[in-house]
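Record format v2
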Amino acid sequence: MNLDKLRINGARLQQSLEKMAQIGATPGGGVQRLALSDEDKKARDLFVHWLKEIDCEVTIDQMGNIFGRRAGKNRNLAPVMSGSHIDSQPKGGRFDGILGVMSALEVLRTLHENNVETQRDIVIVDWTNEEGSRFAPAMVSSGVWVGKLDLEWAYARQDINGKKQGEELARIGYKGELPAKSFPIHAYYECHIEQGPQLEKKGKVIGAPKGVLCLHWYDIRLKGTANQVGPTPMAGRNDCLLAAAEMIQVVNKVAHIKGDMVATVGELHNHPNSRNIIPDGVHFTVDIRSWEDEHAIDAWEMMKLEFEAIANRHGTPIDMEITWRVKRAPFDEELVYNVLEASEKLGYSSLRMVSGAGHDASYINQIAPAAMIFIPSKGGRSHVEVEESSWEDCSKGANVLLQCILKSAMQA
Amino acid sequence: MNLDKLRINGARLQQSLEKMAQIGATPGGGVQRLALSDEDKKARDLFVHWLKEIDCEVTIDQMGNIFGRRAGKNRNLAPVMSGSHIDSQPKGGRFDGILGVMSALEVLRTLHENNVETQRDIVIVDWTNEEGSRFAPAMVSSGVWVGKLDLEWAYARQDINGKKQGEELARIGYKGELPAKSFPIHAYYECHIEQGPQLEKKGKVIGAPKGVLCLHWYDIRLKGTANQVGPTPMAGRNDCLLAAAEMIQVVNKVAHIKGDMVATVGELHNHPNSRNIIPDGVHFTVDIRSWEDEHAIDAWEMMKLEFEAIANRHGTPIDMEITWRVKRAPFDEELVYNVLEASEKLGYSSLRMVSGAGHDASYINQIAPAAMIFIPSKGGRSHVEVEESSWEDCSKGANVLLQCILKSAMQA
């Protein structure tokens, strides 16, 4: 058979996604399937059941990562891998993560029913706790798997109720025996919703990110002088919320200087946070991302100078901490090309772009060639109940994934 | 004897204040004596003991207000009243409130040891829970006493552990039988630390506030669009923390337009308050105070227009609520004059000023002639452990109080 003509079953993919969306469905039309919750377990069980239906060999590693392996002709060759995550944000959407697992499953189902034999094994994977919203940090299990994070440290992470990640893995029956340790991978593809507005705005169907933006995190702490607001004249106040307000504007202003940069203050804590006391403590965060690490560093240097001047003017001592800096991660050029080529052959418009968000693919990219396939997010919305992508675009993403997996898995 | 020559005993006043500062003393040199706590009870017991030592008739009303009455010649005349509060802020200072009670006590002790007979009774008072930091609102018991707040409502107020104010009054043994209901008062004087920097800055000893500033509270709520920060370009964001930051600057700018106005954003809540999600909900407060109610209203109208424009520009729908508006409260002109005259006769420099903070005197002012006597706060600091006033200034404040009380209590 001509494998170029092979297509996944869009209706079946929709059914899989709809079935998964029932597990942890929220009244607002979204999904709440927190990592290692009862909902996560239920979705995992269903996923494992589906893998066994198509004769995949299922293994669970120490981090609860689920691998479903479909045998190829030459079992000595490194396999092609594809997947994403089953867990969701609290009040998250029906596509983030699960699309990457269900589209890979749909690819395997298509190969299974058409008796397609590949040269290499194909491994489908569900990475435990990608979101990090119950147990921080995010992408913890792909991180452990590639050797960047420590297993015992990951086990010890606690949720807000003090439950440990390792204990919760055992509780839901997904603390496997297999070492959470990478094995050679020939190629890794992850299909995912864009979680941004670019594809929709530009009227494109498939996004081929050339890599993930650099990610720089900072923590800013200001000290002011608490006083009763009534008897304290405006002149001579050391109001650190007022100083922080100026700084937030600076972050926004600097972000606009370079094209693809984004800079955000998402978190702010004000002390004592009482309506009639001048704030004497503010802690806020800055998140800067750019394709050019240099631009992000330059932006920070500019912000830093302005922050210092503002703090001086208000008499509010400032402490600035570099919390985390991750360099940009370019994906494998050949695999990115495969995504663009498959889109073209399938007649889908495509866009070379960047990924602003981190994904499990970012970690896998550190040990193996990796690439991602993005499909449009309606209104660019994600991590919310109204997160949506069309069934048609889901199908198209899965078809691109099918062709990419076939191309890599047929390589001797 | 020539009563104009009568002086309080500064060393004894200092001892009383130091003794009280031991009850609930904090490691940082301040005091934590929350309303109706064990510390409050201990301080009350000592106060009652001291009142009885000088033959005062002690009564406790239903709100736990403690009255110590020293008989005058003509018991049918309305008494002169003086006092303040024994409770403190959490990690508060050693002078706020307690100075007004101890200086009134010192005045009575001075009259007692000099066998001074006044025309009218003199009543010294400790108002329960002036601070409102354990049970909101502040000044609750003077409010009930003048009939502006309801007794049962006050009883039902809860602290963060769910304990009711009424139950805690009973627990510490200060839920009295006497109705918490005002009786005729000839004059009310309250000696208090300034809690602001004016006296210190201008090198004056006694402040005679002509009244309390108006107080207007607003609650502003903004809605934004939550999105992951990485994939969401700067253009087209609806970041409501960024919008709020602009509004905070507006509050500060407008406050500077009129001389004695202060305007403050003391409280801000950000949602979801996560470093990698664009904020979709912000709630902040605005506190505006001025001697001229009109100025405060004008300032709000200006802010409102600018807030609306900012919210429009950011696409962050805004809701603005008028939470509380209290008009300015001018004190009794004759009593304020008494404070200035007594200061002059005693050779203390004085300042006509306004009070930016509310006090129990604000409520009493609604049913009887009232005035306050301010002494300097070092660095203008208050509601903090480092709150401080000199012993000399405390003495001077008490001497002014003595002369004012004598003047009013001698009136037939």
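Chain B has a mean pLDDT of 96.
The two ends of chain B are 19 Å apart (CA to CA).
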